[in-house]
């Protein structure tokens, strides 16, 4: 695909040791794509040398002297680190040299800088964070995941537009279904904001399925699930906690003694296939949507495989006009309502 | 234990075929306890005869001619079915003949009838629904799970009292820790209601741990986790959906072909131990707390084992003065604040 991705190579728990090999692995798989590696040149060059070559012509280094700390206050990162790898990567999107940026750094700082540099799209009050979660049929996008704690019905409608266009741009699905997260399927249930959002969604022209409940996320009832950032953050972290607990318990039962270890060995191919299917690394790369540019947030602890997935999502979204699709859809809705 | 539990034997998806054998199994394990089976006498007698005896003197039948439908409107059940098995079971708690009631019927109707018949405790604005969720160390109680969609900070404080007393009454833990569900551990995060609730909890005299996040539930960071009913319902159903998806995928990998079936056979003891550990039936029995009486809600689809757990929880809560403990704690807090 014909796209250039700017990569904040210094962010995340591991920095260039992970981000640079992931970028080069991505380039090898996707002919025509380019990356701009952003960070301290000496660190990047060392990592490139170790990986064995820079894929000449498709991989460029953009120097940035500073790094945003993982626990740094977003306001501080924004005001005082104008030459951070995160900021420079986003500036590359702003200037049009790249069609998307990826960072594994501090979420708060990434959101603050992205919002400040890129600005939100017309009609969008606040950007949101969306991620893909696996289900029995494939995956769906859930948003918002924590950028917006208190949301109005209009915000939820905007999230639905952004989630739908994300599914269209990255997964090439033309009329994604949208579910409104609620605590009952009947339209009368839920709080006032959710009820109002239901009304707006029914008249939006989106492919609105209706209310969905928590279990519908993993059943794959709809392609997109919208909720406020408090609920979305709780459901995401609860899911992570439950999955980790179950994985730990399964491991404990198979490593209890020499007999159970032998069982694990015997069952390895099936256990391994299961592990691959539910591997959360495949879903790495949350989208900051609603901005005038594509920004993808990788998990801070992402390994090379996981970070490569985040780059891939950034490239797909950039190549398939995510931002323009959201803008067009918002404009069409504005037009219809006036 | 010295306690009498009133059982709505007609409620739930299966009725007396499940509820009666579960009640008799409970009696056999707990000397000194009694049950009052509520429902249509002919249906109950038939179920008792099949189980092989009524444990004379410890099992009584209380006739009730009506049944609340699983999809019946709560208002209708409350107004027009005064001789329903659900209503009669709760009446037995009200009159003092039973110390607790259990039903697998319609949650909305159970809450409406319980509230109408038993009333809320002094200082409690609204009853809540609490359930035990498993974690790496044992289990914790989470509330509210859907009875209260919009909550004030005071409601969250009341939930914390109710959850703490539940842990004390059922699990005999004297100073349970309380976590306030939020989207960040820092006190500055979250919405205004959660921030205010944090202030109230810090001054409550409860064993307040501070903010917790979704993954802390399954880590077992605190004994009690409080949140509003919208968030609680979403997190519970999301957990159910994820657990079901993972179980389905694990089963699929082991039943893919004759080789994987052989692997499953070889790994059976470890897989079975894992299944037992995460068996949601062990956690059946949500408590309707904040009322002047103990009411436990079983899952509608509960089998005999699961329904027996719900009866056990009702008996423990009734025998260990759950209601009085909540009332005393609320009175102490009132006294301290005036």
Automatic annotation (TrEMBL), chains A, B:
Catalytic activity, EC: 2.3.1.274
UniProt key word Cytoplasm: yes
Quaternary structure annotation from Swiss-Prot or TrEMBL: Homodimer. Probably interacts with PlsY.
Function: Catalyzes the reversible formation of acyl-phosphate (acyl-PO(4)) from acyl-[acyl-carrier-protein] (acyl-ACP). This enzyme utilizes acyl-ACP as fatty acyl donor, but not acyl-CoA.
Catalysed conversion reaction: a fatty acyl-[ACP] + phosphate = an acyl phosphate + holo-[ACP]
Similarity comment: Belongs to the PlsX family.
Alphabetically ordered keywords of this record: Acyltransferase, Cytoplasm, Lipid biosynthesis, Lipid metabolism, Phospholipid biosynthesis, Phospholipid metabolism, Transferase
Major localization class: cytoplasm
Protein localization: Cytoplasm
Name of the protein in question: Phosphate acyltransferase
Superkingdom classification of source: Bacteria
GO biological process: fatty acid biosynthetic process; phospholipid biosynthetic process
GO molecular function: phosphate:acyl-[acyl carrier protein] acyltransferase activity
Organism lineage: Bacteria, Pseudomonadati, Pseudomonadota, Betaproteobacteria, Rhodocyclales
InterPro entries associated with the record: FA_synthesis, Phospholipid_synth_PlsX-like
Gene source species: Azoarcus taiwanensis
GO CC field: cytoplasm
